[in-house]
Design goal:
CATH architecture: Sandwich
Number of domains: 1
Order of helices and strands: HEEEEEEE
Strand order of the largest sheet: 2-1-3-6
Bound molecules: calcium ion
Shape: globular
Structural class: alpha+beta
Helix content: 10-25%
CATH topology: Gamma-B Crystallin, domain 1
Number of strands: 7
CATH superfamily: Crystallins
CATH class: Mainly Beta
């Protein structure tokens, strides 16, 4: 019985420890909170960075399916509904037309790098990709 209690306490403390580790890893502003800040890749419902936003933390692996994400404080899925985008991270980001990083794609340069040959860190409208993008990495 004592062993069981000890094992349970150990398991609980392991869970709490994992939670503390995760929360310390988030950006200073926090992601998926509707504020597009440093270290975040952001998709907007409308052109010119308006109409609702989803701010993704970058460098935490690919986002394979936008069906799992909504513009913050709305019931609108990010999937096939984004119309502008901004990359505030130090990473190149590529958005894809299909889930699972498939289909035609749009590349973003890293923040502060400017546009080169039509590839930019932000797009006030997504052109052919308007209301099409479904994943990014
Ligand atoms: Ca944020
Ligand atoms: Ca799509």
């Amino acid at each position: 019985m004592i062993k069981q209690v000890a094992a349970t306490l150990l398991a609980v403390s392991a869970i709490l420890g994992a939670t503390a580790t995760n929360s310390s890893a988030i950006s200073s502003d926090g992601w998926e909170n509707g504020n597009c800040t440093a270290d975040e890749f952001c998709l907007y419902r409308n052109t010119y960075y308006s109409g609702g936003v989803m701010d993704f933390l970058e460098g935490s692996g690919p986002y394979n399916n936008y069906n799992n994400y909504y513009f913050v404080n709305t019931a609108t899925s990010v999937n096939n509904n984004a119309s502008s985008s901004a990359n505030n991270t130090v990473y190149e980001v590529r958005m894809y037309a299909n889930t699972g990083l498939g289909g035609p794609s749009v590349q973003h340069r890293a923040v502060g790098s400017g546009c080169v040959s039509g590839i930019c860190p932000a797009y006030h409208s997504l052109g052919w990709a308007d209301n099409v993008i479904s994943s990014h990495a």
